[in-house]
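Appendix B. Worked example

We walk through a single record from start to finish. Start with the input: the chain for Orotate phosphoribosyltransferase, Rhodopseudomonas pentothenatexigens, length 187.
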Amino acid sequence: MSKSASRARLADIIRTRSFGRGEITLASGRKSDFYFNLKPTMLDPEGAALLAELTYEALRDEKVDYVGGLEMGAVPLAGAIAQLSWLKNHPIAAFFVRKKPKEHGARLSVEGLAKGESLAGKRCVIVEDVTTTGGSAIKAVEAVKESGAEIVLVLTMVDREEGAAEAFAAAGLPFRSLYKASEFLNA
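Next comes the structure step. The output line below is what the pipeline stores for this chain.
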């Protein structure tokens, strides 16, 4: 399938499985009359494959070592991208950032790395399912930077176009999205 056909098909899946109208409170605390819950798309076989394909294509030329982001939204994305990258013979490892470190065990905030493995000096992309103000992704960015990594990009599947681009620009972080909310609202 061509990139444009994959993108159109994924938009249909998102529209059917993950987009809705009705009052909702967002993670940022704001009220909205529309929402995106990308979990049904990320956990659908075709949706997962298309998200991984389009994200991998967006990252292929970035010389990325790792991809990950804040739990829970980034976990299925990062795993699918890692798997596809292996199949494409261009491995990109995955990780995720806990919202708060576990109170037992290793008490890690960044998970998925083997013993002795580190993000120090590695080129990382922060992925997110839906971005509103950018606050969740910024939390992940901070944790990954504390690990010594270089953040090369923040990539979201859907940008709600409610301040994230401006927040990332102010933080000096490159930001891209696969889709914008207006593509679904104006369709």
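Two observations about the output. The two ends are 23 Å apart (CA to CA). The mean pLDDT is 91.
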